[in-house]
Every structure is written in structure tokens, then in C-alpha cells.
Amino acid sequence: MKKAVLVQRNEPESEEYRNSSRLQELKELAESAGYLVVDEVTQTKNPDRNYQIGRGKADELSRIVAETGANKIIFYNQLSIMQIYNISQTCRCETIDKFHLILEIFATKAKTKRAKYQVELAKLHYELPKAKTIVSLLKKKERPGFMGLGSYEDSYEKDIKNRISRLRNELGRMQKDYENLRTTRHNKGFSIVALAGYTNAGKSTLFSEMVDENVEVENRLFTTLSPTTRSFQVNGRKLLLTDTVGFIEDLPHWLIDAFKSTLDEIFLADVILLVVDVSEPVEIIKKKLVACHDTLWEQIEDAPIIAVLNKVDRISEEDLVCRISEIEYLTPNPIIISASEGTGIETLKQKIFSYLPVWKRKDLQLPISDSGMSIASWLFDEGIVHNIKYTDRILVDVEARDEVINKAKAVERELHAYGHPKNQL
Ligand SMILES: Nc1nc2c(ncn2[C@@H]2O[C@H](COP(=O)(O)OP(=O)(O)OP(=O)(O)O)[C@@H](O)[C@H]2O)c(=O)[nH]1
Ligand SMILES: [Mg+2]
């Protein structure tokens, strides 16, 4: 397992809670990128020296790297190229900042080709200024090419620029295909529910609480189904639930598109659950909600958003009432849950149900034949079969979307007309 040392440089003016929650955020990010966190270091920024890391701290980091065998030093704070270079050299360990770490996570979460290209584009944008600096250092006859910086040739910068322009062209072409996907999905009649929300809000916990464990999602919708999509049922209706990568505040501009493309599933959803950690101080809740709204507004077309206030087990009834009223303008009619304790889940499911397209209920008569049987089994897949009887024909009481009922009715008519319906389904 890859080992990482985390460094958080405290803002002297920032309150303690803020500083420690940043370190916690970095730790969770590192873990979701697959690192084992071997040590955590904090440093209070010296306002006079601004972003310089002192000799003492660098020595401390070198010692930790040597003792723990860490493969990476990860800073919460954004680092300049020269800082990355200097720290990598001194500590003999690859050094990255939070944004590079986030990029690593996006790379693992990117499922669609479009998302993968966006992530690659962001990586190249991150690399480009690095390449420029290295090339200029090389020209000064210094030869860095070490650790976090890699070894660079003179042509490297040019290669990056070429690749960036090729990716941009390719992405422009893909945008159109992608927009067609939503239409295709609707024609197939699937309802998808997507989980969105700030990182650490409890999306994945809620995901595991809601889905039918061990139920494989049938591979009918996507060519490769993401491992974070599973089925679940509400009042007999089968739905798909998708977990997504969490929102993070203050993303630099070169990361935003990569981030949005990992949310492609949200763009395809019929209902969006916006999960909020309601146990946090109200100012932080508001700030995170605004960040989520900004992104969602652009991304979605007309899907309803259900606000889900999670982690209520952590706060008193009184605090909850107070917070709900303070954030009401951002989260109207929220559903209150505790994902880890499983409370409020049924209410949430019923709320989701209220947004689903209405299905028709019909009594149908089908022939006892291969085609009749296959239609009946198709109805089990596509709708809710309330009752089925086998006499000289198959009597089905079924609830399903319009297209399914209409197709089945066409076959029923054939039964009456010819006695031998063709297998049309
Ligand atoms: N007390 C309490 N803790 C919870 C609840 N739901 C989730 N947590 C905890 O919150 C932390 C984050 O939960 P996750 O489900 O991983 O959060 P997430 O939104 O998927 O986070 P990202 O994947 O990083 O975006 C975990 O330590 C959970 O155990 C809850 O209802 N109550
Ligand atoms: Mg998660």
C-alpha cells in the first residue's frame, strides 16, 4: 500500500475547528486515493515568511520519511513549483498538494471516456507550468529532474501543448454524443437516483443503507456499469442509485471541468439527493451548500433535488430545529436522516417515489404459448406484477410505464384477432 505523510499549514487567523477539519478532510482524501496515512504534521504559517517552509520543518519531514518509508508527502495547502521541487529534493520524497491528490482521485472515479479525457486534460494543465519551470532551469544549466518533478526534455513542453489541443478537439466532439445519452436512457424507461453532496457528508453510507445488497445491476443501461451503481426498490419499483465523488470547495479552475465530468451520472439522473452533514456548524453547512448548488445548477436540466440532512444522531433536537430554519432558503422541505443508524430512510424512499413518473395499472390476457410466457416474464422485469393466473390463458394484473402496457396490449389484441400472437417483444 502507498504510504503518505500529510502536512497541514495552519492559518494563524483561522479558528482551531477549521484547521483540524482541514487535516481530517486531507486524511479522508488520501485514504480514498488509496494511501495509508503514516503521519500527520501541522505547522503554523509564519506571516512574515508567508509560504516558505522552514529548515526545521523540512528536516522533520525528512526524518519522518526515512522512518516510515513514506512514498509521498501531501500538503493541504497549494504549493508552488519551486516549493514542490525544494521539498522533494530535501526530503527525498515525491511531494504533491491537495489538488494533485484530488486529481488522483478523479482519475480513479472517472468512468466515462469523456471523464477520463477531462482528467487527463487537468493533469496536463497541472504539468504545463511545471514543465516550463524545469525547461528554464535546464537552460540555466541546472539539472533538477528529480522526484516530484521527473526528468524533462526540452521538447516536453511542446508535447504537452500538442496533447492538450488534441484532447480539447476530442472533447468538443464528445459533448454532442453525451447529450444524446440522456434521451436514450429516458426512452428505455429507467429511473436513476443520484447522490450528490460535499465530501464526507455521508453519501456512501446512505448508498449502502438504501441499496439491495448482493443485487447485481443488470447491464442494460450502460456499456460498463460503474461499480457505484446498484438497484433498490420503492413500493415495488426498481430504481438505480448512483454514488458520486464528493464536492470540494475552492477547486482551482483547471480542476473544475475534470470534477464536473466525474459527475456525469448526476446529469443523467431523474432525482438528485443532495446530502448535507447537518451536524457541522451552520456557517460551514451554508458555505458547502452554496458550493454544491453552484455546480449542480449548471449540470442538471430539470431533475428535482431532494435535500437530505444527514447525521442527525450527532446533534440535539433543539440544534436541529434551529439549523433547519437557518438553511431553509437553501434546502426547502428537507428529509432528516441518520445514514449510519438507518433512521429516516423509508421517508426518503417515499419522497423519491413521489417524483417518479406515474405508472398505469392494467388487467391483461395473454396466450399460453412460448410468446405469451415470454411476454409475461418480460412484464415481471419491466413492471410490478400484482397478480398472475394461468387458466386457458394468462391473466395478468400489471403496473408499468405507458410504453410497456401499450406493447403488451398490442399482443393481447393479436390474441383476440388471430389466436396466435407473434412474439414481438
Ligand atoms: N454520526 C454519523 N456519522 C455518519 C453518518 N453518515 C455517515 N457518517 C460518517 O461520516 C463519514 C463520511 O461518510 P461517507 O459515507 O464516506 O461520506 P461521503 O459523502 O461518501 O464522502 P466522500 O466519498 O468523501 O464524498 C464516515 O466516517 C461515516 O461513518 C450518520 O448518519 N451519523
Ligand atoms: Mg463516498
Automatic annotation (TrEMBL):
GO terms for molecular function: GTP binding; GTPase activity; metal ion binding; ribosome binding. GO terms for cellular component: cytoplasm. Pfam families: GTP-bdg_M (PF16360), GTP-bdg_N (PF13167), MMR_HSR1 (PF01926). Residues 1-22 are annotated as: Disordered. Residues 157-184 form a coiled coil. Mg(2+) binds at residues 204, 224. Keywords: Coiled coil, Cytoplasm, GTP-binding, Magnesium, Metal-binding, Nucleotide-binding. Residues 10-22 have a biased composition (Basic and acidic residues). Its main location: cytoplasm. Its cofactor is Mg(2+). This is GTPase HflX.
